[in-house]
Amino acid sequence: MTQDELKQAVARAAISFVQDGTIVGVGTGSTANFFIDELAKIKHRIDGAVASSEASAARLKQHGIPVYDLNSISELSIYVDGADEVNKYRQMIKGGGAALTREKIVAAVAEKFICIADESKWVDILGKFPLPVEVIPMARSHVGRQLVKLGGYPVYREGTVTDNGNIIIDVHGLQIAEANKLESAINEIVGVVTNGLFAHRPADIVLLGTKDGVKTH
Ligand SMILES: O=C[C@H](O)[C@H](O)[C@H](O)COP(=O)(O)O
Predict the structure, then answer these.
(1) Is 75 a catalytic residue?
(2) Which value does ipTM take for this structure?
(3) Are residues 54 and 160 in the same domain?
(4) Active-site residue (options: 5, 54, 85, 103)
(5) For a substitution probing ligand 1, which of 38, 80, 81, 84 has the most ligand atoms within 8 Å of its CB?
(6) CATH number reported for the structural domain that contains residue 72 in this entry
(7) Each residue's pLDDT tens digit, 177-202
(8) Residue 152's Cα: distance from chain center in Å?
(9) 157: domain CATH number?
(10) Are 51 and 137 in the same domain?
(11) Domain span including residue 145
(12) Buried/exposed code over 156-193 (b: 16+ C-beta within 10 A; e: otherwise)
């Protein structure tokens, strides 16, 4: 099976968690795009969606799925999104597509976070994938210096502006043993909006696409 076929398989599997008549939280990225396309097939059964990026909102609308502002709803039963890395504690690194902040916000509202990923994303220790950090532009150098003190090698992601008008710094060289602590420490740096560690809010369910089928963790 190709990587895209594995992504499609987990996207399909996630549809079984969608309850009729509800608003669905939808993530960002290539795996989330497969989920949006699967969601379109059952769009008559749902009320609509909340998107974690402008790109996902546009794809949902192209399919004729109503997109709600998060502020206009009070509850969200599920949030379905991909990940750049996920471990056995269902902690994740996210933000390869620069959507980490909105993803974290929608995930915070959702009762259940369902992570959909192909097996290449499964890791023992988080950190091989450079950790994305969303930063207020004027704080770029300051945040970079603080990230070095935390043991990382910060690299400015040239040409990327987030949906919130900020920049991304990718932190290389981290071996993340205590994801909760590092998530908090980075978020305490003045000028950081948030970072792509989802440790305080791990996924509730991971659907992992493997050659032997979709495995649930
Ligand atoms: O900002 C992007 C998101 O965190 C994505 O969920 C993550 O990068 C995984 O994307 P993909 O499904 O394309 O590998």
Answers:
(1) no
(2) 0.97
(3) no
(4) 103
(5) 84
(6) 3.40.50.1360
(7) 999 999 999 999 999 999 999 999 99
(8) 21
(9) 3.30.70.260
(10) no
(11) 131-194
(12) ebeeeebbeebbbbbbeebebeebeebbebbeebebbb
